[in-house]
Target: DOMON domain-containing protein
Amino acid sequence: MLVVVVVVAALFTSGRLAQNTIGDLKTNCNKGKFCQSKPANCDPQTNCIYFLSYAPNPADKTVTWELLGDVGGSNQKYIALGLSKDQSMGDDALIYCAMGSNVAPIVGLAGNPVGHSSTVAVNDPLLTVKKQLHFCLQVNSNVQLTGGGLTGTKLWCRVVQKITPTVNSSYVWNLNGGYYFLMASGKFDSKSSKFGIHATGEDPMFPYVSNSIVNPVLATTTTSVSSASSKNCVSQQAKQKLVKAHEQRS
Model:
């Protein structure tokens, strides 16, 4: 999902964030917001490797996302959520939350084209996005950071995103659709604006892949994947698809 990242919309940093804490992330799961995690039913403050919640806000036509990843408790890291039409990496719409040297994280929208090689070779673990950042500032109304930070080893962000995008981009999608959720994390170099490759193989930080297609606006599950043995595990078939996505870029 995140071998290459092309930033296409919305960079935002806030110095005035809501006072909610990491302990509030699991509050109201299945009561106005819907949650997924790795492992299943984990505690965001202790044993969650990845945590995701989404809450549709019909009145203001937005969806509120909450993203969390265990990044080891240091700055210069990112977490990202991919909205995917399958369980493979590539051609996904991404929401990223990165922690550089600032007190508050930065968030943005991005995409990862399959076979994209014009900016960086596949075997290069970092992709420079500095040249694209000026585009982000022009369309920052599509996504807004309302809470987040680094708490212990956990990086988390609360992000409000417009359901219908106001920017014309192949990788900023209408949220009223069915998507698999993919989550990953990696290194972020704030000085050079580079994102590192996510964990691979049997690493505990291997990306999370949902086993169902979800519409985050209607909060409905539309398709189950029988090969996924549980909601907190990536099936062997899904792992093969994720690895295949890397091979296609070599």
